[in-house]
Structure formats: C-alpha cells, structure tokens
Design a protein that fits this description.
The chain has 4 helices and 8 strands; from the N terminus they run ααααββββββββ. By secondary structure, the protein is of the alpha+beta class. It folds into 2 domains: 212 residues; 80 residues, Sandwich (Immunoglobulin-like), CATH 2.60.40. A hairpin with a 2-residue loop joins strand 6 and strand 7. Helix 1 runs antiparallel to helix 2 and helix 2 packs across helix 3. The longest helix has 54 residues.
C-alpha cells in the first residue's frame, strides 16, 4: 500500500510524530542517518509554532476589524448629525455646496471606512474655515472631527498592517508545512532503502507496508440460515482484493466482543455446535496481506 504524504497539517503533524517515535524505537537498528527523530521533532515544533502564530495573527485581525466597524458606525452617526444639523442652512436636497461638508453626489452617508475618513476630513476643514458653524454641545467641532478622523485613520491602518501580518504568518506556516512534508517524504525514501516492502517494522512508524495490497472492501450480502438446532449455514458476496475471509460470532450474554470462528477462502461456511437457545450475532471480514477489512454488518440468528 502506498504511503501518501498527509495534505492536512493536523494529520501531517500526527503522522510525523509517529515517524519520530518509531525512529527513536528502531532508528539505530535500521541505521537511519539523514532523518533522525531530532530533525523530525524540530520540523514538527517549527510548524506547530508557525500555525499558532498564524492563528494569533488572524484573531488579532478579527479584533481590529471589529474596532473599525465600531468607529465606522460612530463616524456615520457623526456625519449624519452634521448633515441634519446643517440642513436648515444647506437645504434638504443635495446641491454642490454639500460637498464642502464631505458629501459627494448625494446626502447618503459614507459606505466604507475610506469614504468616511475623507468625509470627516472635509467636514473638519469646513469647520476650521468657518468656526461660526461649530456646534459645541453636539461636538460638531474641529477638535472632535480631528479626533474622529484620527480614530478612523488608526483603525484603518491597524487593519491594513494586521492583514500584512496575517499574510506573512500564513506564508511562514505554509513554508514550514512544506518543509515537514519534505522531511516526511525523505524519511520514507530513506527507510525504503533499509527495509523490504513487506517488512512488518513499517508499522512501527505508523506506515503501511509498501508491498502490501490495499485492504479489501467490507464484505456485503452476508446471509445466515439455521439448518439445524445449533448449526448455521453462511454465505456472502465476494470482496474486492480479498485473499480469504474471517468469520466471527458473538453469543449475546456470553461474549463481550466478536470471537473468531473460522477463516474460509470460499464464500460460504457452516457454523456448528453453537450454544442452544442462544442469540448469536455473526460477522465476516475480508483479509489480504494489507490487513483485515472492517467487519460486515451483522446478521442475527436464534438457535434451538
């Protein structure tokens, strides 16, 4: 069976840890030289740290985006207040002189933080040029407009900078993951020169035996017919890649788990001498040199 390099980072970390653990156990026995456990662990730790850094960066970006949404709403409220306050002087409909207060083409409020920042700046400059228009009780002042402008600018800058941090952290994480994948593939390539394709020691590393077949399909179509008081005739459909089969029985109230009852190479078998007056569950698994399939769905019979 082929040993594929895990694509998912979590699976890659788990599988790489299995390699490291196995290398500690039998690496010296095999004379592993290039991909010792220390190097594997170093790559694992690097990826673990880079993943954590990326998640922290993303979490901070979420916070910064929440902050800019908050200041954006405050800014829109402020511009709406200024618009409504000055309508008696500028009119209820948009005309060009509204542009002096930061409104472009309509009296609609800004739709993005960038538009809002420009609008607040224009509004502030209007108040600075026309101090008699300031309404101190409503904070329609140059000072407050400047404060709001600074808050929007800082919030936008924080989001932009953090987006760059996230991008850099992601690139670092991905590069670290690729390094661990190269280590993983390199380990398999090295060990394949030190062990045969059916050497059971591949399992020590959590790997498949390269020379083994893919595990057979789950057995389907299992049928059981009681042909005597304690005798059952079984048959089932052929399973792809199966070399032979294993039959299991579980006597309810007696067996905690299914118990092996035979290993036929054919597609049928007779179970004899079952307990009398018992409920028995029966399963079949398909077997080849790659291992044993999962158990089939159970069939249940009741003996006499």
């Amino acid at each position: 069976m082929t040993n594929l390099t895990p694509k998912n980072d979590s699976d890659l970390l788990t599988s790489s840890q299995d390699l490291a653990t196995g290398e500690v156990a039998i690496g010296n026995e095999l004379d592993v030289a290039q991909n010792k456990s220390g190097k594997i662990i170093a790559d694992i730790n690097d990826l673990t740290g880079k993943r954590a850094g990326y998640e922290i960066a993303k979490s901070k970006l979420v916070d910064y985006r929440a902050a800019i949404r908050s200041v954006f709403e405050d800014g829109k409220t402020y511009m709406g207040l200024g618009r409504d306050t000055f309508k008696p002087r500028f009119g209820n409909e948009f005309v060009d002189k509204w542009k002096l207060l930061g409104f472009e083409d309509s009296l609609a409020l800004p739709k993005t933080p960038a538009e809002l920042q420009l609008a607040v700046k224009t509004f502030k400059e209007f108040l600075a040029a026309n101090p008699t228009y300031e309404v101190i009780p409503l904070n329609l002042t140059v000072a407050y407009a400047q404060t709001l402008y600074d808050q929007i600018s800082a919030a936008r800058g924080a989001v932009y900078n953090q987006e760059m941090v996230v991008t850099t952290a992601k690139e670092a994480r991905d590069a670290s993951a690729e390094q661990l994948r190269r280590r993983y593939r390199g380990f398999i390539d090295e060990v394949s020169q030190l062990m045969g394709p059916l050497d059971p020691r591949w399992k020590v590393f959590g790997l498949n035996l390269p020379g083994a077949m893919a595990i057979a399909d789950i057995v389907e179509g299992l049928q059981a017919v009681l042909i005597g008081p304690t005798t059952v005739a079984l048959k089932w459909n052929a399973s792809a890649r199966a070399d032979y089969y294993r039959v299991f029985k579980r006597v309810i109230g007696v067996d905690a788990e299914p118990v092996a009852a035979g290993s036929p190479s054919d597609l049928d078998m007779t179970l004899e001498n079952l307990p009398s007056n018992a409920t028995v569950e029966i399963y079949v698994a398909a077997v080849n040199n790659g291992g044993e399939s999962q158990l089939s769905e159970k069939v249940t019979i009741v003996t006499h």
